[in-house]
Specification:
By secondary structure, this protein is α/β, with parallel strands linked by helices. Helix content is about 40%, strand content about 25%. Belongs to the LysR transcriptional regulatory family.
Length: about 280
């Protein structure tokens, strides 16, 4: 039997009228009658008593109606669920998160969840050194990261340029110094979330390009990098808007002549066919 036959049967059984069922299902009455007859032939017993006075359910028809209501409703729900997944308004979206300070990006996720509550959001830790490979491996659908021109087959959405500043622990020897210049920082370790691309180091700390003797503290991820800075293990470059939200255990250094920025956006693979990802990208735009 076909689901359309059950739908037609449900409509006729509820209205006790082939005419009203035809109007309700937007199907010609002969087609309704033909499908009901085919269903009866398949079942091997009549579902309706047809007379000049109208249509009535047989005893078997009444039992069949009540027993199939749940089946029909389940099929309806399954179809709606599958359609929502295909359209991206339901399903699963896995997001790679590099650090807990990405609050501006969390706002976008919260807005998306409010608009599409049937999409299940899953967060996964993304580490700077392995995040691009993990994106290709399907560990997550999308992540927030610095734009890299060398990243193969990676697309970016909602890219923003973040101005950077140099931050240190409140107990750092340079914490209260005024009018610093980049060369004043060279004797101190510089912290960076470890990455595959050395060019990102010099994009973050352009004055280090000619100073290979300055030690780098390579943190496993951005949260560890932040902890290293707070513990006084070195200075760290970070977006100004992030640094301004830090607590009293850190401070922005007054470094004259330091100018650096990072383009940051949502990274994803254009080949990823997850409809929930497509819906999120549509939401971002």
């Amino acid at each position: 039997m076909r689901t359309t036959q059950l739908e037609y049967f449900k409509s006729v059984a509820r209205t006790l009228s082939f005419t009203r069922a035809s109007e309700e299902c937007h199907v010609a009455q002969p087609a309704i009658s033909q499908q009901i007859k085919a269903l009866e032939d398949e079942l091997g017993f009549p579902l309706f008593v047809r007379s000049t006075k109208g249509v009535q359910l047989t005893a078997a028809g009444r039992a069949y109606y009540h027993d199939t209501l749940g089946v029909i409703d389940a099929l309806d729900k399954s179809a709606k669920r599958a359609r929502a997944i295909a359209e991206g308004s339901a399903g699963v979206l896995t997001v790679g998160v590099a650090n807990s300070g990405q609050t501006a990006y969390f706002d976008a996720l919260r807005g998306f969840m409010a608009s599409y509550p049937e999409v299940e959001l899953r967060l996964a830790r993304s580490r700077s050194l392995t995040q691009l490979q993990e994106l290709h491996d399907g560990v997550y659908d999308i992540m927030v990261t610095a734009v890299s021109e060398s990243a193969k087959a990676v697309s970016y959405a909602a890219v923003e340029v973040n101005e950077l500043c140099i931050v240190a622990s409140a107990n750092h020897p340079l914490a209260n110094a005024k009018g610093l210049v980049p060369s004043d920082l060279l004797s101190f370790p510089h912290i960076i979330a470890d990455c595959e691309n050395q060019a990102l180091v010099y994009q973050t700390y352009p004055y280090l390009e000619g100073s290979p003797e300055t030690p780098l503290v390579r943190a496993e991820d951005q949260d560890i990098a932040l902890a290293d800075m707070i513990m006084g293990l070195g200075v760290e470059a970070m977006p100004v808007h992030v640094a301004q939200d830090l607590g009293a255990d850190s401070c922005i250094l007054d470094v004259v002549g330091y100018h650096a920025s990072l383009a940051v956006g949502w990274a994803y693979l254009a080949s990823n066919d997850n409809p929930a990802l497509a819906k999120f990208l549509e939401f971002l735009n």
